[in-house]
Amino acid sequence: MDQGGISVVIPVFNGAGFLAGAIDSALGQDGVSVEVIVVDDGSTDATARVAAGYGERITYLSQPNRGPSAARNFGIARARGDFLAFLDSDDVWPPRNLVTLLAAMTPGVDIVLGRIQEQRFEAELQAWVASRAPTFSLSLCAMLVRRAAVARIGPLDETIRIGEDKDWFYRAREAGQHIVYLAEHIAQYHRRHETNMTRDMGRPETYLLSLLRKSLQRRSVFAAPASRETAETEGSKPVDGAGS
Prior knowledge:
Helices cover 30% and strands 27% of the residues.
């Protein structure tokens, strides 16, 4: 791809049943130049075969199982675009997701964050249906970020298996990055199923408290610059327990 485009990193572990949908939604983005990087995190199913079916349209990388943070970091290291986006292997984007996020990436903005809409499979309908209204969340899959900002914030914490995205956003705020929240755009659809990693998180408040504790410890050691956060409408920031 040409420099200046968007690199999309898709980590996957035993996600053969959903991976094609994620890749198709990344390749099908309107109005942008996209590089799609699939990082196989030690899958033992047909993930490699699904990825191989796309040939040179994607970059396929593999590593021993080390978790989603390590897989994303591996993809970041190989990415060539000036902007980075992340898509989980069981998620999909609407066709104009990236062009909408990119339009809000005005000079001085480091990160643009859109909305998430969760879906569940209704067996009686044989279809995916929305399980709740679109909402904000500190999700990497709803974000577009400048490569330069990633270099300032640093890689994802590979010791964290659940909540690594929220930890990274806390660090982005601590690093003083300018974040814009889009009020109207639905940035990502999360397809809920029996093997979602979020089903293993236990009580959400437990891991959130752990992440917030880490953030407070970092702030007590380093003087954190003030972050700039812009929301399109009042009250449209995420409510993941991460104050500025």
